């Protein structure tokens, strides 16, 4: 079909030069046909879905970066030229609904598993597992116990099981043995290692010789979370912190360019959560309502897991349920459905949730912060930034909203990995991609992936049919237009508009 078009047009044109030959310049209508048919031709290419056994050079590469606590709107506060350049060259999603609770460990694990916290098992930064009789705390080596992580399989493990390689620079959980594996390349967590040193490692891993280079890497940086907690997000001092993150991003872009990776590596820059401004006037003191000997305090404010002592559940719950208008108390089984935060024994029998800006303490003598996160994930201030660029992504495309669990199936698609059962859906965010997935990879949510299905082969047939119908329609329109001498109607936009329309039709 492609050859026929070129032949009839009488000369070989590339898609780029072709734009100059649209009707308003007096070109042949056949070139317009070609424009319309091009998306179909590309859809029919059987090589679009790559398999893990193909040549190393052709393999798609992906780097996932998290700047901890980078709230979605920070980029609008100060000039952030490096975030802007990714937005212009790629995609941006304005509102990202992350996973409840909006804390660091649960959300970083959701990003690489596509699971809500109740399903991946890292339900908080501080946890107690009654079956294991073990406690988990970010501040201890307990995080290195695989049993906490083995309820899910992070993307790096799946890639390695499929014969690929991965790299990890301090992403939460990435230096823990999970399902018997560490990332192919990784750094042991050490907060003193600079961002620049982490970037150099990641670039080195991507640049390694054929057969050793990583396909996927994750990169984590502690800021602007730390400053957000200390200063509060409303502090003018945060402006400088945010500008500093943009400079760090600029460093990363530059290192990728220097290594010749910039056009090859798909880059996603996001975060785990946002940050809310707190106030010392907004403190809820639990000691006013319930004897602290009746329960164990498990996770920290503003969403606190309460483990009542044996036989004390109803007493503790009764004391807390209507205790303070700025705090909700839920029994685990009554936690609102949309949080997807019930079905795990690591979620404590009582959950306290403060309203935005409020802090829950036992009394006022504890450590107080000016900024915090953890609140309801539908609160905008809890939501992270999201930008991405690279060969897999569209250019200069703004999307209004997504859920962070949808990122996992998207990353699996880019890397040609079959996703494990997850809570995301590629369908919701496939418009971020430069070429939309074939039906076999656009799997509906909550469904186990079967090996490639034959439905894929219908696409060319349906595509050709729609193509022919559209071409005929176009010819009629063209002839009418020429007849009434209104030639300059279609201009360049006919090219840009025809593509998404055709592709959408194909996926009905
Ligand atoms: C749980 O572990 C602690 C030690 O960390 C021990 O004192 C306690 O008896 C254990 N509880 C049960 C129910 O095994
Ligand atoms: C952590 O990194 C710093 C800076 O690179 C280094 O000086 C220190 O020895 C590292 N600590 C550990 C435990 O490796
Ligand atoms: C507040 O709690 C701490 C322990 O967390 C305790 O040492 C202190 O006495 C308490 N203060 C008051 C006023 O109850
Ligand atoms: C999330 O996905 C897991 C794995 O497929 C599934 O067990 C769980 O029920 C899902 N959760 C929701 C809320 O659909
Ligand atoms: Zn965080």
Automatic annotation (TrEMBL):
UniProt-recorded name of the protein: (Atlantic silverside) hypothetical protein
Keyword DNA-binding among UniProt keywords: no
Parts of the chain that traverse the membrane: 461-484
Entry keywords, A to Z: Membrane, Signal, Transmembrane, Transmembrane helix
InterPro entries noted in UniProt: Alkaline_phosphatase_core_sf (IPR017850), Phosphodiest/P_Trfase (IPR002591)
Signal peptide: 1-44
Name of a matching Pfam family: Phosphodiest
Taxonomic superkingdom: Eukaryota
Species the sequence originates in: Menidia menidia (Atlantic silverside)
């Amino acid at each position: 079909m492609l050859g026929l078009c070129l032949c009839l047009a009488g000369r070989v044109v590339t898609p780029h030069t072709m734009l100059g030959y649209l009707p308003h310049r007096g070109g042949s209508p056949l070139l317009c046909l070609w424009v319309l048919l091009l998306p179909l031709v590309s859809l029919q290419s059987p090589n679009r879905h790559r398999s893990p056994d193909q040549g190393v050079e052709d393999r798609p590469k992906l780097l996932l970066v998290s700047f901890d606590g980078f709230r979605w709107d920070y980029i609008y506060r100060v000039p952030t030229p490096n975030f802007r350049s990714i937005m212009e060259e790629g995609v941006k999603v304005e509102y990202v609904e992350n996973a409840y609770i909006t804390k660091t460990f649960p959300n970083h694990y959701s990003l690489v598993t596509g699971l809500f916290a109740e399903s991946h098992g890292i339900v908080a930064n501080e946890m107690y597992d009654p079956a294991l009789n073990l406690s988990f705390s970010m501040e201890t080596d307990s995080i290195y116990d695989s049993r906490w992580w083995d309820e899910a399989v992070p993307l790096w493990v799946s890639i390695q099981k499929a014969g690929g390689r991965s790299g990890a620079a301090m992403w939460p959980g990435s230096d823990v043995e999970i399902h018997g594996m560490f990332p192919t390349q990784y750094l042991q967590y050490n907060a003193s290692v600079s961002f620049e040193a982490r970037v150099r490692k990641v670039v080195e891993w991507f640049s390694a010789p054929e057969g050793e280079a990583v396909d996927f890497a994750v990169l984590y940086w502690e800021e602007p979370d730390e400053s957000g907690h200390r200063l509060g997000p409303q502090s003018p001092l945060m402006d400088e912190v945010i500008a500093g993150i943009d400079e760090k991003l600029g460093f990363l872009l530059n290192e990728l360019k220097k290594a010749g990776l910039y056009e090859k590596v798909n880059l996603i820059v996001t975060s785990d959560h946002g940050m809310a401004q707190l106030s010392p006037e907004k403190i809820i003191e639990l000691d006013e309502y319930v004897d602290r000997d009746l329960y164990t305090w498990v996770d920290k404010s503003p969403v606190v897991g309460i483990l009542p002592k044996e036989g004390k559940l109803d007493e503790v719950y009764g004391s807390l349920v209507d205790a303070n208008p700025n705090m909700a108390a839920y029994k685990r089984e009554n936690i609102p459905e949309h949080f997807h935060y019930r079905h795990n024994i690591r979620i404590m029998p009582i959950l306290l949730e403060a309203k935005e800006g409020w802090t829950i303490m036992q009394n006022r003598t504890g450590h107080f912060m000016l900024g915090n996160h953890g609140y309801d994930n539908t609160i905008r201030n809890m939501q992270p930034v999201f930008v991405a660029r690279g060969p897999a992504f569209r250019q200069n495309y703004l999307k209004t909203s997504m859920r962070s669990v949808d990122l996992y199936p998207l990353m699996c698609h880019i890397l040609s990995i079959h996703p494990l059962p997850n809570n995301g859906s590629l369908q919701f965010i496939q418009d971020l991609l430069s070429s939309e997935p074939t039906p076999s990879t656009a799997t509906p949510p909550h469904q186990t992936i079967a090996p490639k299905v034959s439905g894929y082969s219908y696409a060319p047939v349906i595509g050709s049919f729609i193509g022919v119908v559209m071409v005929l329609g176009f010819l009629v329109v063209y002839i009418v237009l020429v007849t009434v001498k209104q030639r300059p109607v279609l201009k360049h936009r006919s090219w840009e508009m025809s593509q998404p329309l055709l592709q959408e039709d194909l996926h009905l």
